[in-house]
Amino acid sequence: MQALGRGLSRLIHFTSVIGVLAVTLMMLHITADVVVRNLFGIALPGTIAAVSNFYMLVVAFLPLAYAEEGDKHISVEVVTDLLPARAQAVLRGFAYVLSAAVFIAMTRQSWLEAMKKQAVGAFVIQEGWRIPIWPSYYILPVGTALMALVVLYRLATHVTGAASGLRDDTPDDVVVGGKDHG
Question: In this protein, which residues make up the domain named Tripartite ATP-independent periplasmic transporters DctQ component (predicted)?
Fold first, then answer.
C-alpha cells in the first residue's frame, strides 16, 4: 500500500511542478506584455486569454491534490476535537466518502464539458486573433480526478489502517531522521 502512496505522491509532485511552471510562465508572460505595451505601444496577442483560460486554471486546480496530500486544506475541528477518538474516526471516514463522491462527480461532469468544448472547437477572439481554448477545459477534470484519487487512497488507508506512503502523513509530533516535524 505504501508503494501506491509513494507513486501517487510522485504524480502529485509532477503536477505541482506543472503548477509552479504555470505561475512562472504567467508572471513572465504578463511582464513581457507590460514591457512591450509600454515600450512599443502594442500588446502581446493572447495574454488575457492565456492568463484566464490556461495559467489560472492550472494554478487553481492542479494543486488541489497537493494540498490534500499534505493535509493543508482549511479545516475547523472545534466540535470534532471534543468527540471520542472512535467518533472522530467515523466522521473522518464519512468526510473521505463525501469528498470522493463530490470530486468524482466534478471529474465526470468537467470531463463531459471538456469533450463538448473540444467537439465544437471552443475559442476566444482577442485583438483579432482566434485562440483555441478547448484544451484548457481538460485541466479541471485532471485536477479533480487527482484529488479524488488522493481522497480515495486516504479512505482506503483509513479503513485498512495501512501505512500511507503519502508525502505528509507523518504526525506533527514525530521526529524522523533527526528532524522535528512539529
Answer: 26-159
Out of 84-88, 97-101, 131-135, 175-179, pick the least confident: 175-179
Q: Is-contact 182 173, C-beta < 8 A? A: yes
pLDDT grade, residue 173 (50/70/90)? very low
- Residue 181 falls within a domain, yes or no? no
Q: Domain residues for 159?
A: 2-168
Instruction: Give the SS3 label for residue 126.
Output: strand
Cell 486546480, located at residue: 61
Give the whole-angstrom CA distance, residue 113 versus residue 108: 9
Determine, yes or no, domain membership for 176.
no
Number of domains in the chain: 1
Q: State the pTM of this model.
A: 0.83
C-beta separation of 149 from 157 below 8 A: no
Nearest C-alpha neighbor of 149 from the set 111, 78, 100 = 100
Within-domain flag for 175: no
Scanning 41-138, the segments in alpha helix (DSSP H) are 47-50, 56-61, 63-69, 85-120
